[in-house]
Amino acid sequence: MTLDELEMKCKGCTNCELCQGRTNLVFGIGKKDADIMLIGEGPGENEDLQGEPFVGRSGQLLDKFLDSIDLSRNKNVYIANMVKCRPPKNRDPKPEEQEQCIKWLREQFKIIRPKIVICVGRISAQRLIDKDFRVTKQHGEFIDKNGTLFMGTFHPAAILRNPNNKELAFSDWLKVRDKINELGIQI
Ligand code: URA
User: Which of 36, 54, 151, 170 has the fewest CB atoms within 10 Å around its CB?
Assistant: First the structure.
């Protein structure tokens, strides 16, 4: 199956109750065979309206981080979320919602086959790296999982709330740049 075919299938998903509130399902965006994949939490209001991940204020900050290391959703990364439909009032996605939606994410992983996965924020880091993941303690660390490198970093929305962490987040993205070079990944 191609990524486009998977997206078509996914758009009709009714596996959890989040489908009831969606304007658009937010499947993901970017290079279809990207070596670098980013996983956020879930769509917010703007993402739900536009059907694309990270298009609001935190998305603008994320794009700045990416741009600073020559990465871009238009060129060489793929961006998705733990859940594809907006949780009401932007609450955290429930474990059972994540459990349903991760099935789609696994299919995306199988098709895209990224070499590096960046967990943007606590929700995806705790589901994909370690259930006790602490962003403030473990951000910027690469962990090899069956040949794919995973790293967790600050969510841009958290940085907008607490700009003190901006430098730390920036240093994480520089580590991504270093890792790309170290692995000889052509971007
Ligand atoms: N926050 C996320 O985690 N994902 C989005 O797509 C937008 C905001």
Answer: 170
Backbone angles phi, psi at 115, to 5 degrees: -90, -30
Residues with CB under 6 A from ligand 1: 40-44, 47, 53-54, 58-59, 81, 121, 157
Phi, psi angles (nearest 5°) of residue 116: -130, 130
Residues 129 and 120: their CA atoms lie apart, in Å, by 11
Number of CB atoms found within 10 A of residue 90's CB: 13
pTM to 2 decimal places: 0.98
- Bridge partners, residue 153, by sequence: 120
pLDDT in tens, 46-79: 999 999 999 999 999 999 999 999 999 999 999 9
**Cross-strand pairs, 119:** 39, 152
Mutate which of 24, 37, 45, 81 for ligand 1 pocket (most atoms within 8 A of beta carbon): 81
